[in-house]
Write a structure and sequence with these properties.
By secondary structure, the chain is an alpha/beta fold. The chain has helices at about 1-10, 15-20, 25-35, 35-50, 55-65, 70-80, 85-90, 105-110, 135-140, 155-165, 180-185, 205-215, and strands at about 95-100, 120-125, 145-150, 170-175, 195, 220. InterPro entries: CMIP (IPR052813), LRR_dom_sf (IPR032675).
Length: about 230
Amino acid sequence: IFQLSKLISCCCRKKRFLLSINKLLPALMLLALRENQSSLETLCAMLDLDAVENRDNKLQLISALQSTPTGSKLYAKVCDRQIALRELQQKGGPRKLTLPSRSTDGDLAKLLSSGSFGNLECLSLAFTHVTNACAEQLIKLPALRYLNLWSTQFGDAGLELISEHLNRLQVLNLCETQVTDKGLNYLVCMKMLRKLNLNSTHLSPITFEALKEKLPALQECDIRYTDAW
């Protein structure tokens, strides 16, 4: 953070520099959610100088800024200078969203509460610290088609909840999660599932056969390193 602050103090108004740090955008957004001043200023500068690589990233960035009082004030000042930003946001939220690996349930809730995510189709929470608690946020995403929970603390309780609500889901990655047969049996409600990753989970042969029978759209199912393999 200290190094970032030093860089920003000398380079934050240089578009070339801001374009070069687009790869750091997930980390910057996570710090912004936690009210790091340098990150908030950097995100505003990226908007101000049109130094964000694509529309989805720009909308994610706006949501991160709006999630805190300080970020909202800084964003409002940028909008005063650029009316087009407000127009962009009013057209709907991003279609894709990837949270940084250190993100928690709280970070996800804060981000999703700060903007419009009704158009979100693809969400990756892979390698984050989210748990079953994040399911309360996930069920608020009606357009979700792709959900990646690889190597999280997600388990049966969360799977039961999303199975009831996210019946348009087509791709679900549960690799290296804590789900068991108890939770996996709820997946039979998700009739649109095409791809399912159950690699390294507590899947039994009986449950796997039931899923194949009751999920007619299922085309791919990774069951490596399970008892059903």
